[in-house]
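Dear support,

I submitted the protein below through the web form. The confirmation email said the job was done, but the results page showed an empty box. After a refresh the structure appeared. I'm attaching both so you can tell me whether what I see now is the final result or a partial one.
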Amino acid sequence: MSTNPNTAIASRIYLSPPHMSPNERDLLLEAFDSNWIAPLGPHVEAFEREFAEKVGVNYAVALSSGTSALHLALLILGIEPGDEVATSTLTFVATANAVRYVGANPVFIDSETNSWNLDPVLLAEELREATQRGRPIKAVLAVDILGQCADYDAIRGLCDQYQIPLIEDAAESLGATYNGKAAGGFGDIGCFSFNGNKIITTSSGGMLVTSKKEWADRARFLATQARDPFPHYEHSVVGYNYRMSNLLAAIGRGQLRVLDERVQKRQDNFRFYQQEIGKLPGIELAPELAAGRSTNWLSCITVDPELFGATCEDIRLALESENIESRPLWKPMHMQPAYAQYRVRGGRVSEQLFKNGLCLPSGSSLSTSDLTRIVGVIHSVRERKDAKQDFGFHNASSTLTPNALPARSPS
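What the results page shows now:
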């Protein structure tokens, strides 16, 4: 909220809010009126079919969350207790949690600087040394960070070399491409999230995609409590209540129809930030692989406090004071108390990104005035720094000299 007591409180600008269109309401009411309220139904089947076509895979299974998709993917690929799974350290905790759900142990791999995704060079080192130790990595779970695909030419090649499966955590990258191919189809199994802050949302929900029918069938079986084909309830293995409801699938179908528009708007947001703050000293926007096309799900910057004159936390607090939400980049998993005991290869890049990184409002419903308001706050932080310097050098009535200026305390 504004620090000026005479100024009305400006409306809240959120980091990545849901963005609905009339399609979703119409389809949701149709599902409601049809009385297909319980899980499954015609909208689930249609959503799966339409989603698989959009992503360019053979099969899609609609689930209750992206996390459930990751969990099922690991089960289907035979990951067992005690196995080690190489995965990104710069990610949301759901990725690592899913590994622990099956009793396996995550091995965290640092980010590369040119995409912030899992570093294939470090992955190659880990796969080689783990094999030499006699405890080979059993799967790679690569994460597409902030709307950008990882370097799958390199990662897929390593998985093929070591004959281990690849899972693509595409929770943040629906609509992105790599070498012209859609995100989600680079692994043996791909996993998406439709959480409320994603590019498209079903309120909650997720999708597992694959080109193997037997894996899609297995996912559906496990996700519906693993009920065997008997007239009574018969269960030979443990199952889960992971299927998406027909109502949420109806919302998803409407959202999928405007996916391209939502992606375009987020890319436009990124370009606006690039133009308005990208040339400020000490500010850099997230990089993009030459082979990729990011959705810019979140537009993120890094801040060099020596050059900019303030930290990313200073910017975050200034934005919050004006009722604008922003957020630090993911805290690496190897720095999290719940995962500090697990092995990490590298770590310096992701640690630095967490220290100096900030996610700016990126929703597809942002207006030009919203964006102008956001960058105005960032410029004001810089201008306050410049004003302090000018005071020290140019205010003749001041007894301060440049050398006598009080040191800036770290935030």
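Response: this is the final, complete result; the empty box was a page-load delay. The radius of gyration is 24 Å.
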